[in-house]
UniProtKB/TrEMBL annotation:
Gene3D superfamilies cross-referenced by the UniProt entry: NAD(P)-binding Rossmann-like Domain (3.40.50.720), P-loop containing nucleotide triphosphate hydrolases (3.40.50.300)
D-glutamate N-acetyltransferase-like C-terminal domain residues: 137-331
Any coiled-coil regions, as ranges: none
NCBIfam families: DgcN (NF041892)
D-glutamate N-acetyltransferase-like N-terminal domain mapped to chain residues: 49-129
PANTHER family according to UniProt: DUF1611 DOMAIN-CONTAINING PROTEIN, GLL3100 PROTEIN
Pfam families according to UniProt: DUF1611, DUF1611_N
Descriptive protein name: EBNA-1 nuclear protein
UniProt xrefs under InterPro entries: DgcN-like, DgcN-like_C, DgcN-like_N, P-loop_NTPase
Length: 345
């Protein structure tokens, strides 16, 4: 069974609201980074601290430039739509745009939005919610290879890492597909399931559905979520790990963090994440192993970043890189060394 396809009309007007920082708009940044040709402009409210570096447009200007859908490009705690944004969404519907959202709240559950959509004949897309019915995970080995990105925290680059790996592996003639497990990834790839909106009992089964049996040398590159150490999201991370039956994993890390995002808990070490991932992942794949470390060095100067990556490579015996800044060739080389073509059982 394949993952569902979206029917969201492009190009997009990216709605950022008045988010307090760039991480709160990570959905918008992800789409703009990986599908820039779909993003015609952005709509920001006073006080917005995010900027995609694309034109600021009014609704009328967006429609005149051919925008078809306004994407609510934010990710906040609880996935709620702030009350003062509702009127902006209604105005966009009245202007002739469809609305797509990755928030937990269903757009149609808000009467003003539902009424405006019906009146204007516009579509409401709740990307976080799927119409699929999933089985519980079975943990039975299935053909194909799978890599999962895991993290020392949430929002550290797990999606960007597997997207970079997909691009790099395909450039080298390898059979690899990005598998989206979050709303931004679904927007980017046009398929997948937002795992954090799946009922807990079915998380691992949903991942088995996202990355089904495949040719022995095919790689599914599965987008990780949260962290096994995060008190809010560890349940989702564990379900992902078991459903992925990952052969390989990459640890993603942001070195400037002092505490995990949204809580007071300190970040675990990279080694702690490696050890726990192997311990827990061995339940469904006893051969699971790490193949690299992906570090978000955006806040570091180039020399400082290169020194850190060299130190991490030496400390852990794994290739460490910033996938966006320095590429992923080292990780791909390690992956091929660990899992040469034709070696699948």
């Amino acid at each position: 069974m394949g993952a569902r396809e979206m029917q969201i009309e492009t190009p997009y007007l990216m709605f950022l609201g008045d988010v307090p920082d760039t991480l709160a708009a990570k959905t918008a940044y992800g789409i703009a980074d990986w599908r820039p040709d779909w993003c015609v402009g952005q709509l920001r409210l006073p006080g917005c601290a995010a900027d995609l570096g694309i034109p600021d447009l009014t609704l009328d200007e967006a429609v005149a430039k051919g925008c078809r859908t306004m994407v609510i490009g934010v990710a906040n705690a609880g996935g709620v739509l702030p009350t003062h944004w509702v009127s902006e969404v209604v105005a966009a519907l009245n202007a002739g745009l469809d609305i797509a959202s990755g928030l937990h709240v269903r757009l149609g559950s808000l009467p003003e939005i539902a009424e405006a959509a019906e009146k204007n004949g516009r579509q409401l897309h709740d990307v976080r919610h799927t119409t699929e019915t999933f089985d519980t995970g079975k943990g039975i080995r299935r053909p194909g290879r799978r890599l999962l990105s895991v993290g020392t925290d949430c929002s550290v680059g797990k999606k960007y890492t597997v997207l970079a790996l997909e691009r790099g592996m395909r450039e080298r003639g390898l059979d690899a597909d990005f598998r989206a497990t979050g709303q931004t990834g679904v927007f980017i790839s046009g398929r997948g399931v937002a795992i954090d909106a799946v009922v807990a009992d079915f998380i691992s089964g949903a991942v088995e559905w996202i990355a089904p049996a495949a040719d022995p040398d095919h790689w599914d590159l599965i987008e990780g979520q949260g962290s096994l150490y995060h008190p809010s999201f560890a349940g989702v991370s564990l379900g992902l790990l078991h459903g992925a039956q990952a052969d390989a994993f990459v640890v993603c890390h942001e070195p400037s963090r002092k505490a995990m995002r949204g809580v007071a808990h300190p970040l675990p070490s990279i080694q702690q994440v490696i050890d726990l991932t192997i311990q827990l992942g061995s339940l469904t794949n006893p051969g699971i192993c790490p193949v690299g470390i992906a570090v978000n060095t955006q806040k570091l100067g180039e020399d400082e970043a290169r020194t850190l990556l060299q130190d991490l490579t030496k400390e852990h015996g794994l290739p460490a890189t910033d996938p966006v800044r320095f590429g992923v060739d080292g990780i791909i080389d390690r992956l091929l060394a660990e899992f040469p073509a034709g070696s699948a059982a």
